[in-house]
Amino acid sequence: MNIIVAKDYKEMSQASSRMIEEQITKKPDAVLGLATGGTPLGTYKELVRSYKEGRADYRFLSTINLDEYVGLDPEHHQSYCYFMNQNFFQFINIDKKNTYIPYGKTEGLEQECRRYEEVIDTVGPPDLQLLGIGENGHIGFNEPGTSFDSETHIVHLTDSTREANARFFESMEDVPTKAITMGIRSIMKSQKIILLASGERKADAIYQLIHGEPDEQFPASSLKNHDDLTLIVDEDAYKKVQRKG
Ligand SMILES: N[C@@H]1[C@@H](O)[C@H](O)[C@@H](COP(=O)(O)O)O[C@@H]1O
Catalytic positions, please? Predict the structure, then answer.
């Protein structure tokens, strides 16, 4: 595992966008695995800047997102589809038909999971997967206890994850209770993985990721079995590692 400790959120975002840009420069038709949440927003901002300044071209790029809420229309303001358009896709020259996000509004959820895993296997697997991390160690929406052998599946969100995401909704009742997520095995199919973490809120999770053994009770620890993992964290998220060594 490579670890890059950035001074703050901005430097963390710059370091991750640089790695993504290198990937696209090397392979313009690369496939990127993308994440939502607050953490990667700065990275998307930097990538938009690169496009505007003529340093990045996304014409041939494909993207595969990690997850989506069940029951939300893609146009819903809190859907991850909307998030990606609002924060990234609308500002760059990506071909929208090459952007993949699970469809959460379907009646046939199991079928949607199988379809999505096929997308990962045929369009992807991603050359590079960007990840955030939940305070309880979740990646995508893979909550503690998820099998390391899991592929795309439906999850019941834990109260702690719903609470952490409630800030984006009008009230806690509006936060969906289920989501479709790439599984741990699906995520591990990527060639390279970058995991981002910022802020003291993530310090315990980063400590456990670095020092713990792979354990299904802490989903991010599965990544320790990947041979090309880079953690990019800011000093606040790295605080506990630094303090305890
Ligand atoms: N499904 C997403 C995850 O992909 C994300 O990593 C996590 C952390 O979010 P944040 O980056 O806002 O802390 O939130 C959600 O649960």
Answer: 67, 136, 138, 143
| Alpha-carbon distances, residue 70 vs 103, 125, 139, 226 (angstroms) | 8, 23, 17, 29
Q: Considering only CA atoms, which of 243, 207, 237, 231 is closest in space to residue 8? A: 237
Determine how β-strand 2-6 pairs with β-strand 192-197: unpaired
Which residue, chain included where needed, has tokens 């990667």? Answer: 40
- Whether 71 shows a pLDDT value over 80: the answer reads yes
Does the C-beta of 199 come closer than 6 Å to ligand 1?
no
- In tens, the pLDDT along 218-231 reads 999 999 999 999 99
CA-nearest of 148, 245, 196 to 19 is 196
Give me ligand 1 centre to Cα 159, in Å: 14
Q: Domain segments of the chain: what residues?
A: 2-243
**Cα–Cα separations (whole angstroms), residue 143 to 93, 109, 233:** 34, 18, 21
Give the ipTM of the model, two decimals please: 0.96
Q: What is the fold of 2-243?
A: Rossmann fold (3.40.50)
Of 9, 13, 34, 39, the one to substitute when testing ligand 1's pocket (max ligand atoms within 8 A of C-beta) is: 39
Is 15's C-beta closer than 6 angstroms to any atom of ligand 1?
Answer: no
pTM of the model: 0.96
What values do phi and psi take at 181, rounded to 5? Answer: -140, 145
Alpha carbon distance 239, 245 (integer Å): 10
